[in-house]
Amino acid sequence: MLEENDTTLDTLKPGEKARITKVRVRGSARRKLMDMGMVAGTDIELVRNAPLGDPMDYNIKGYHLSIRKEEAKQIFITKL
Amino acid sequence: MDINEIPEEKPDTKVPVIFSAICGSLYIILGLVQLAAGTGKIIIGPEFNMALADVLFVPSDIIGSFVLLLIGTVFIYGVMEMRSGVYEGISYAYVGILIALIFAVIYLLVSTGNLLEAYLLRNEDFAGWTPVSDLRPGIYLALIPLFAYIKWKDIFDPVPKN
Amino acid sequence: MDGSKIKIALTGNPNVGKTTLFNALTGSRQHVGNWPGVTVEKKSGNVSYKNYDIEVIDLPGTYSLTAYSIDEIVARNYIIEEKPDIVIQVVDASNLERNLYLTTQLMELGSEILIVLNMCDIAEERGDRIYIDKMEELLATPVIKTVASQKKGICDLLDKVIEQKEIKQYHGHEIGYGAEIEEKILEIEQVLAEDETRDSRYPLRWISIRLLEGDSNVREKISDSPVYDRVIQIIDSIDQEEFEAEIADKRYIAINTIFPQMCTRANDKLTKSDMVDRVLTNKYLGIPIFLALMWGAFELTFAFATPFMDMIDLAASWVAGYVSSSLQPEWLASLVGDGIIGGVGAVLVFVPNIFILFFLLSLLEGSGYLARAAFIMDKLMYKIGMHGKSFIPMLMGFGCNVPAIMAARSIEDEKDRLITILVVPFVSCGARLPIYVLFAGTFFGRQAGTVIFGMYILGIVIAIISAKLLRVTVVRGKPAPFIMELPPYRVPTLRTSLIHMWDNGFMYIKKAGSIILVGVVVIWALASFPWGVEYGSEDSYVGSLGHAVEPLLKPLGFDWKISVALIFGLVAKEIVVASMGVLYGAGDNSEALTERLMADPGLNALNSLSLMAFSLLYMPCVATVGVIKKETGSWKWTAFAIFYGIIVAWITAFVIYQGGVMLGY
User: What ipTM was reported for this prediction?
Assistant: First the structure.
């Protein structure tokens, strides 16, 4: 269980899928992420990085959501 | 549901590959001619003249040459992806066509502005301007993508991802 | 039957075609303004249908109704406080799951909901299937299918609105949040109910849930209540972060249980939107394509606008000439001719730019590319303390600062937006170019091009330094997190773009125009009085003012004439050149002016360089000041922009001039 929790969303490679286990983001960003569907148990796929490497374009709940690595580092996942 | 469960054969990319290769090469060649015409004017001065540029209606516009080279590169990028077996490479043919058309429209609108300056306002800076003065590769080359776009509307329709 | 009134509110996620539906419903009969107190766009319109007078309010597009942004607060306050008869949620059929999240929140607000399923074409292209009957049954709300861009389904929608209004039956719908949370909700509800003076428009359950989610806006709302302390006690007893996650979780679980019954999603397909994204955000091609498209937008905004600008210019000078020669008495002719028409004309010439710019921005936004532009540029912008969305306004600034500042509206975060508005004036706009051309051309000969390019770079450098400086001083904090939907690409509707262009362009003329008018009249008065002196000469007030500020500007190498030209430049920076013409008695003959400038012993390469830098940076022109006031809604920030600019300009010019003198130039 502990090992699983060590993996964060920013380590995903393009095309890889994962399931969110915990959102540790603080502040107003937390609220916004949840509203956008970033809740535990949701499947997520990294589509691609921006041309300069950051932010990232994820596929979640059938749409594209883009967040920075900084936030992705605080979202824990289990790779599928 | 029913159709998608049977693994669908991906369409052949032969036609888009050939089209992209031709279109891309043309854009790159004319882009290079335009780049030469533009840099020549800067290095040698306004008296610099290229017979080839005149025949092909190539203006000495460096930024414009980058646009042509860019459109050409998009097509060629697609050729390389499709040739290496990535069906999604067809995206580059589609977007190449769209960008080529967008820039042709931009050039045509700017020309319309010049037309108004020359004939309606009779601005001195536009003395001797005729619609042919604004003809450029960015406009006439776009006829090929335009034709392709009209002819192949459905070639870019969605296919299942692998 | 006697023309009854119905009030409906349109709500929904951003990018679901809400505005298109609004335009299809109301046609051209709409009013655009701002919501009271905030710069969020407020649109309303009317439609007469079957003897009913239907008022439509377009609420800001939101993903949720929490207090994350002003948009969300505006939307939910309207629904709760104004109690529209029917709340229509526009839902993107291709993105049903996330859209339903807002539906769950609307249901908690206790309003009558009607769902409009839009953009079914995209969903169908992908092969999704939506079962509308099942959807109506599971959500217990009517569902209407429309294609707003083709005006399909509009009559069905209006019929349904009338039907709903007649039946007036409300389906209560609640999401269960599980025993632990429900217990707390109940506890808070009971405490709140004891307060007899409470605002009864707010449903108790909704307030309780919001409080448990840590909504500061709702907390503030009940802060006057006698039971406030007891409520806070309950809230403090819970692990708020846990509750927040749990509540969002439960909403999605509720959606997940019904979602599979009303929609089957096709296997992933490569859609046209995916194809476009693959190229436009490609690692190598993404940035070149972005720059090329921006260059195209720029070319259209400025090159295509030129003939229209020339026409306005011609018309304004014709009218000014006609008025000056025919109006009596003479001072009135001068006020109207030189002052008002001349000055306002100088600002009206930008109208074509602004209209085209808003049209293009609307195309970029409607197509979905604006979101990608922010996505592509975010890393770079973040490094200098700004948000990805600030890039486009900054770029537009090279053309004209006025539309650039207006374009900053797309930035949601107040601080990010404020910083963008404050630094855009340092980006060298087209109006400053004539100044560089005149002085660099006169004093730098063959190096003129390099000097002019240097001025553009100086503007960018100052903008970046200012952004960084503002972040550590008056607008503290980091740029807002980048959490953004990248909506599917689609072909923008011409009609929506035209309406957007007209609304915003007209707002510019109206709002900025009134401030500009005042500024223009003040400058005219300074240049014309005491009555009888030559317009703008040494004996006029502006001449005296020039002499008065001369000691301040002396360290920068400027004499009174330059000071006067700079004062005139406040109206519009290109006027600096025109007033140099007047002051040197050369009129608008540029060759004569060049000769006389060269002949003036008080001018040389060094102080003309200092002058160019000063003109670039000192307070923005009147039109820009007007639009800063309008967009920030604050005189304080407007004054800040002015004085900050002057100080930066003074320091920069001082360093250039004194540095040059020290180096022996």
Answer: 0.93
